[in-house]
Amino acid sequence: xxxxxxxxxxxxxxxxxxxxxxxxxxxxxxxxxxxxxxxxxxxxxxxxxxxxxxxxxxxxxxxxxxxxxxxxxxxxxxxxxxxxxxxxxxxxxxxxxxxxxxxxxxxxxxxxxxxxxxxxxxxxxxxxxxxxxxxxxxxxxxxxxxxxxxxxxxxxxxxxxxxxxxxxxxxxxxxxxxxxxxxxxxxxxxxxxxxxxxxxxxxxxxxxxxxxxxxxxxxxxxxxxxxxxxxxxxxxxxxxxxxxxxxxxxxxxxxxxxxxxxxxxxxxxxxxxxxxxxxxxxxxxxxxxxxxxxxxxxxxxxxxxxxxxxxxxxxxxxxxxxxxxxxxxxxxxxx
Length: 335
Known about the structure:
Layout: H1 4-9, E1 15-17, H2 26-34, E2 38-42, H3 48-61, E3 66-70, H4 77-89, E4 94-98, H5 103-111, E5 115-120, H6 123-132, E6 136-140, E7 146-147, H7 154-164, E8 169-172, H8 178-186, E9 191-194, H9 196-199, H10 208-216, E10 222-225, E11 238-241, H11 244-249, E12 265-269, E13 272-275, E14 286-288, H12 310-334
Helix pairs in contact: 2-3, 3-4, 5-6, 8-12
């Protein structure tokens, strides 16, 4: 299914796996790329050594193109400079940035020979990303899991951005199967970015508890809130699965600030405490009370019915999308 996105990224299928900090390590990113999609390493606030190791691990697993996801908004500028330098030294094919748009960072990445993908949540930021030189814009709807920049449903925001931009546009938020992918393509997207369905994959570095909660989720089981705030700057909403922490908050889902929340350790990850109200999700390396942790998930979690390999996810999405588009074409021809 060639699109403007596959042409820009050099991949076979118009499917990007989100650069989820923690779960999206080399095993997942390489599996997605090897299966014909475009895998992103989630390297938010990781040390240069970890980033270099993960890039090398991806290249040991696949020769296909991939990218590295960084978040300037949530990263100390000195660390961000070191992270980007490692990526440049390793000659990664692409960098993906998220949250607010930094034209100078786009220019720096382009000068180093990287393709630049920018994930945004508003039409204004999409326009700014394109004017700054981004090659691809990822449009995030409010349905998305994890940190959510978008405030509008994808069905509202995506057509606005597609009608305005001239570069490839990717749809993100609430997409976990080929029907959602076909709908996004019909609205003019060049492809889709999926997080939740890949978070629950075999290759994801997320803890099995997190994966199982996603599989068990029903429609309406996610919450959009800023309650999980420790570890990110203020005013950084997330979408997570309901748990005892969100239940205890009752109707008060908004108005929480990182510095005003108590530091109550509920677990540990590689010697570092994991706090209640923190933005750390449970990983394979995490111990503690997983139920109280930040269980990122988009509204598409209700569509995830099992823990599958990345290749199986991509294969099913492509079959479903192709069938849906063929049905739409047949219906149009018969009308």
